[in-house]
Amino acid sequence: MAGMSSRIALTLNGQPRTLPADTPPGMTLLDWLRGPAPRGAGLTGTKEGCAEGDCGACTVVIEAADGARTPVNACLALLGQMHGRALRTVEGLVAADGAPHPVQRAMAENDATQCGFCTPGIVMSAWAHSRCGGAAHEALAGNLCRCTGYRPILGVFAALEDDGAPAAPAPALEGGSEFAVPGQVFHAPATLEAALTLRAAHPEAWLLAGGTDLGLRVSEHRERPARILSLGAVPELAETRLAPGLLTVGAALPYARLLDLLARAPEMAPLAAHLRRLGSRQIRGLGTLGGNLGTASPIGDTLPPLLALGVRVVLGSARAGERVLDLAEFITGYRQTALAADEIILRVEIPRPPEGAVFACEKLSKRHDQDISAVAAGFLLRLEGGVVAEARLAFGGMAATVARAPRAEAALAGQPVTEEAFARAAQALAEDFAPLSDWRAGAEYRLHSAQGLLRRLHWRIARPDLALEVQA
Amino acid sequence: MTDAPPPPAATRTGMGAALRQDSALQHATGAARFTDDLPEPPGTLHAALALSPVAHGRLAPLDLAPARAVPGVVAVLGPAEVPGRNDISPSGKALEKLFAEGLVEHWGQPLALVVAATRDAALAGAAALRPEIAPLPPILSIEAALETGALLMPPQVIERGGWQAALEAAPLQLAGEFRCGGQEHFYLEGQITLAVPGEDGDITLHASTQHPTEVQHIASRVLGCDYNRVTVQCRRMGGGFGGKESNASWIAAAAALAARATGRPVKLRLSRKADMAATGKRHPFLFRWRAGCDAEGRLLALDATLAADGGHSLDLSAGVIFRAVTHALNAYDVPALRVTGLACKTNTVSNTAFRGFGGPQGALLMEDVLFSMARATGRPVDELRERNFAGGPNGAETPYGQKLEGELIRRVWAEARQGADWERRRAAAEAFNAAHPTLRRGLGGFALAFGISFGIMAMNQAGALVHVYTDGSIRLNHGGTEMGQGLFIKIAQVVAEVFGVEVERIRITATSTAEVPNTAPTAASTGSDLNGWAAHQAAGAIRARMAGIAATAWGVPEEEVIFADGHVSAGNHRMRFGELAQLCWAQRVSLSATGFYRTPDIHWDPVAMRGHPFFYFSYGAALAEVLVDTLTGEYRVLRADLVQDCGRSLNPAIDRGQIEGAFLQGQGWLTCEELWWDADGRLRTLGPSTYKIPGSREMPAEFNLRLLADAPARANTIFRSKAVGEPPLLLATCVWNALRDAVGGARLDLPATPERVLAALRAGGA
Ligand SMILES: Cc1cc2nc3c(=O)[nH]c(=O)nc-3n(C[C@H](O)[C@H](O)[C@H](O)COP(=O)(O)OP(=O)(O)OC[C@H]3O[C@@H](n4cnc5c(N)ncnc54)[C@H](O)[C@@H]3O)c2cc1C
Ligand code: FES
Ligand code: FES
């Protein structure tokens, strides 16, 4: 194909690099960064603490042309995904004359490092945070430190200043790319048409969006897929539209950018707050709604709210064009979907809650940040004259798939907003679900806390003046 | 032993200066090299462990062929390939195998090591092995071990007074049972060793270890060679917390074996999952107790059993149990008692050292007793706490015969309460609880007396090696290891103080068995106590020689020679420190010395279970307030107020970091960190995605800390400082107590996850 790149080009710490043609595109960015030159970048400042996206020791930053800085987990990102990007690692913050960056100085001078193994990753999160702002705990959710207790690190985060540095220019991309080494091909088509054609031709290929689920198979399980079809360069899959009544989100739009969009839809605030607890900034820098739907885990965090809202999933294929399914039809079983072998999820159509509706999202986990849900929920209530006209109560973690609670919904329908009505709905939940026990939670806790969430919903409506959550 | 040096003159970088960790800036730029960052020597191979997929069973001799057939695999090593002994026991008191032979005793137990050209090939080789294991029923709980009498060693029992009669005579009799979980160290840098063979059987091990000497011994045992063939080096660890004591030794030994077998450098770096499966953790405990008290809540008698899950083998459990039973009364006095410590044998990974070493578990006991007593007497927990503190009107002697400083216990407690504005906040919490429909606040306190010294008396020794060069620069080496705790800068400060030079003149170097031999692990909070003194001795010896030369040159008495500000002076005479070094060299005087220290005045009789095992005690107190959601069990720590006794702090910045970090680590153990085994004995919380250590949000929203002022150590410690590595971890117990307050005092097992908190609330606590 014309204009097709066959070698990975990226900017590393301001330097344009074109990688040798025999560089495996399906290796992790971290392995490449740490690997000795010439096959790797020979930069060992970025650390591996877990290889599963949770500790943040491997955090590096993608610099966008508009100046935005997106921290990502180098242990999850595949090298081929970094084609056309500008990356910065901890080494790249040091000035040419060897002077450490103010962020690095601040970390050292405020006793924000003890053993130092987490420090490079925290420095990179801090550097991104100094530009992008937001809550410090959110910026740190993807970075673990076992030594300091975080107080000095939070101190550094509270006093960060943007260095004003312009983004390093990323290599210009023309068209799609295909990186091939013996035993592995990585396709990154640049149009939807090309993507659908490739999907039809290679139904066995890994369909890669952010890679925050798939990347684990490489990073942790050391798999070496024969073929990867990456969706990251397909513009149609990153499109969004905010229309009255409907929000349309491209399946491969990273959560970080989805959050920018949700900021413009105030009635979606509960969903935005919910998404800010999905993984960490690093995870949200890459992860996508399409990936959450594709994985179809019963504890996928976006699914209960989307089910409560009644979203439609638009699928596409070269063979049949588009088809639209209700989310409930799309998810067919435990980690199973209605997606055909030649199909790709194109976008998600999210009905916006009407004026006066009550919309709430809930997530329960052992730790508030960067944890997988024990129970997640999305609630949408339509109230008419103080009476519940319709209740859509969707739960994750309660069954083999994300599911609505028909008996609890029925118990609420037509009832006034009283403690008793919600208590009866909570009772009914015991007939809707028989959850399982595992390391995230026992069956009893899942049921009892889900019942608690319904009671909390009552207080949300009855006492909007009260803080009802332990987190400020 | 010389007497403690006088209080330091306030120098910029000497004692008491708040200097930062020695490599802080290199950490932040990524320039600091950890073991995996060292350039790999040409030809380096990579190794991976094959681990048992079964918790308990008879193991047929392993067929190594499938791994050998994997492309890139160079060697596959099992028990038959061990040239020395297949024994990694750190105590030498039990046979503990490097590779299972005949029997597997826990899921994740090492079976073999695969060595290959790449790490992926080694992992693929390990995955290709198909061990044949005839399963046996596993013992997976402390209860099951107690029922079958499966113990790793005889019970350790401390007794005092006629506890039985006192129990029966007590006006109020109480009983309780509760448990605490284990804890994964989760050092951010996983276990790793790079083994580099030299000539004629020499081998150098670059190991991430808290105990280079033990690495040397275990590797030599496995290789079947003299200790002098094995050199162990460690510049820094990415965290240790006790997890790189005995566990680092066997990992290094496995790497050494691979290097010996192949004749090439070999790196063994465990993946996080393998690390969590194959290395030991903090001991979970089951507590059962009976107590007697009077109507006012003064304890009269106690009979308690502390049963630890030691895992499948002895490892360091004897020491952990020792510390648990010696800390079971913590800061309290009970006139008559029996405390029994048991190390149960189960089919789980062998539990090991973890910051506090049984002390944190032991100190939980009295908290449970106090809560039960509060329920029975209707009195507030904190009133009972104060009534039963050791010293004052109560006895000050621990049941094993050592005295606690009752006035310090009362002082830290009073200062913590005062600083926390405790009374007012309790009233505010009660008002909040009465008004809010779903949330509830809880308040909890804790006071601590923690003994400092190794339980094994011989370990309380240390060495150091100091060189002064003719330009006046100084090279420092000692037996302690740096894992982030700031030991290296503290010891450098000691040496800077002795020579009266700025700390920048001192080059801190990697710990090495070739420089300082026969060392103790850096553990039990003793790092600066022991190595500080040893370095002080070495530097002092050189300084004395230098002072002699200066005195002769100037014709003044030696005592008049002063080392300060980078200069040496006497009266009107003055020269730079480096000039004097040059002069010493010209006069052929040695500028190198070793230093050695052994902790004085400690002894222990393991049969009578009595003695003076601790050089001194470190005291602390803490108070916490939590906010609990009664609907979901979610909670948050709103505030914590800590007072910690550091004696006269060597470095308040480092000490503060240790205290805050230890507190949050302790809080993690007591709250969100849950190890979860399935019915087959497989650990299912094997990485940070499922095993949740505290994140930044778990830090108490308001986190206040004070170092106890004007409290120089009474024992002759280095510059009258006190150890700080472990004690503050126990202070986090106040968070448990605050949660327990919020759930109405009901039994609340640990870790107190939201799930357990909700269950306690539902159980009718509130
Ligand atoms: C550390 C960590 C924390 C996490 N925390 C959370 C959390 O809190 N909550 C949560 O819900 N999840 C969490 N996840 C899981 C993951 O981040 C999400 O599921 C995310 O939405 C996946 O998106 P992705 O684009 O990265 O998916 P990918 O890994 O790229 O793909 C996931 C699956 O979806 C398929 N897929 C992707 N896009 C499409 C498409 N357009 N059409 C068809 N199929 C597609 C892929 O083929 C694959 O099977 C976490 C993961 C990690 C590593
Ligand atoms: S190594 Fe832990 S998040 Fe990447
Ligand atoms: S400084 Fe050790 S993990 Fe953060």
UniProtKB/TrEMBL annotation, chain B:
GO molecular function, one term: molybdenum ion binding
Domain Aldehyde oxidase/xanthine dehydrogenase a/b hammerhead: start-end pairs: 29-137
Record InterPro entries: Ald_Oxase/Xan_DH_a/b, Ald_Oxase/Xan_DH_a/b_sf, Ald_Oxase/xanthine_DH-like, AldOxase/xan_DH_MoCoBD1, AldOxase/xan_DH_MoCoBD2, AldOxase/xan_DH_Mopterin-bd_sf, Xanthine_DH_Mopterin-bd_su
Domain of life: Bacteria
Bilayer-spanning residue ranges: none
Cofactor: Mo-molybdopterin cytosine dinucleotide
Family matches, as PANTHER family: XANTHINE DEHYDROGENASE
Protein name: Xanthine dehydrogenase molybdopterin binding subunit
Organism of origin: Teichococcus aestuarii
High-level lineage: Bacteria, Pseudomonadati, Pseudomonadota, Alphaproteobacteria, Acetobacterales
